[in-house]
Structures are given as structure tokens and as C-alpha cells.
Write the C-alpha cells for this entry.
Amino acid sequence: MSEINNKSNTDEEINVSDGILDNETVAGETESSYENNQKPHRLRSIIIEIAIYAALLFVCIYIVPTYVVQRTIVDGNSMENTLFDEENLIVNKLAYRFGEPDRFDIIVFYPYGKDVPEEYYVKRIIGLPGEKIQIIGEDIYVNDEILEENYGKYPITDPGIASEPIVLGEEEYFVLGDNRKVSEDSRFFGPVERENISGHVVFRIYPFDAFGTVE
């Protein structure tokens, strides 16, 4: 009897051992299957992250400077004493997509059209569409009334083509540089078409001691 019992015990041990081996095998296969299933998910996550970073980079490098804001560096002294040579400005390029240019706004524009991109100016709006502009002596007349303003660094000495009345079209603006002694502006190249206005100067970011809004 004891031998039979021993045999039975041995069989039970073998069965139990077989069961443990089977469980380990199943566990190993499950982990392997899990890892294989996770690989495509990880790959998709990496691809999505790369796509997001690429999209953000595209927005920052192309979309924002082209359509939203851009940095512009002043070249010359035609806007003194408001803006000075080599100052760094932030231009709001959306400003006039949702609103109209206003008198005394400082704008950047292409005086000879966007087909001549190397000519890119910064000036102040003086005359608005439909207005009559004339310069007599040191005074600027808008619709036959003297314009009250104090942006000029020096009195006007050369009225240019504005010595005779200029009636602005529906999409035209008359601009002047604040340094009217040296500025090349609408007195010489004529009114600026709205479609050639690139944006509204809103902020100065350099030099740091002059950091702030521009008016």
C-alpha cells in the first residue's frame, strides 16, 4: 500500500510540476504577444509626435512671420525722434485684416508695390482715403483744415507733390516720416495703396532701454 501511495504522490508531484511549467510557458507567450502589440502603438506615437513638432515648426517659421507678426529693423533716420536706426520692431500683420488703418498709425509698406520687396518703408499715416491733402508752408491741410499734430522733428521745408492738393482714392493713404527734413515719403512717391501696407508697428523690442509700445 505504501508503494502505491508513494507512486500516487509522485504522480501528483509530476502533475503539479507539469502545471507550473505550462503556466510559465503561457506567461512568456503572453508577454511576448503584448510587446509585439505595443510596438505598432509606440511607432504611431512617435510618428504623431514628429508630425506635431513639424507642424509647430512650420507655424513658427513660416505662418507667424508671414501672416501674424514679424520683426523689422529700422534702417535710417527718417522716423526720428520716434524710431531710430537699427531699432528692432514688432509688426502686427493681422491689424488691418480686421480693421482699418487710422491716422497717425506707424505702418510698414511697399511704396512701389510688393513686386519691389527690397523697398520696404516705415512711416506715419497722415491722410486717409477720400481726404484732400495739401502742404502749405510748414502746415499740413486735411480737407482745407490745418492738421493739429506734433510728430515732426523739424518743420516741413519741401512739400513735394503735396504743394498742390492731392485727393486720395478709396484705398489710398498719405504718409510722412517724422523726420520731415530727410524723409522720402508720400511727398515724393505719392499715396500708398492699402494692398501694399504690410502691417502696423506696435512694439519696440530693442534697444532694451526703449522696450515698449510705439506711438
About this structure: The two ends are 110 Å apart (CA to CA). Residues 2-68 form the longest helix (67 residues). Residues 136 and 163 are 6 Å apart (CA to CA). Residues 1-27 have pLDDT under 50 and may be disordered.
